[in-house]
Amino acid sequence: MGKCYIDGKPFTFKRNFTVLNIIKEMKKDYKRFLVCKINNRLCDLHQKVINGDRIKLLDITDREGFRCYQNSLSFLLTVSINESFPGKGLLIEHSFGDGFYCRFANGHPVRKNDFHIITKIMKEKIKEKIPFVKIRKSKSQVMKYLIEKEKFRKVQLFKYEEGEKIDLYTCKNYIDFTFTPLVPDSSYLSLFALHFYKPGFVLRFPHPGKENMIPPFHDQKKLFNVFEEYEQWGEILGVADIVSLNRRIEKGEISDLIKIAEALHEKKIAQIADEIKKKGPRLRIILIAGPSASGKTTFSKRLAIQLRVNCLFPITISIDDYFLERDKTPKLTDGTFDFESINAIDVELLNKHLISLLSGKEVEIPKFEFTTGERLKGRRIKMHKNQILIIEGIHGLNEELTHRIPKENKYKIYISALTQLNIDNDHRISTRDTRIIRRMVRDNLYRRHSAHETFRLWKNVEKGEDKNIFPFQEEADVMFNSALVYELSVLKRFAVPLLRSVTPKQKNFSKSERLLKFLSFFIEISPPEVPPTSILREFIGESSFLY
Question: Is residue 369 part of a domain?
Answer without folding.
Answer: yes
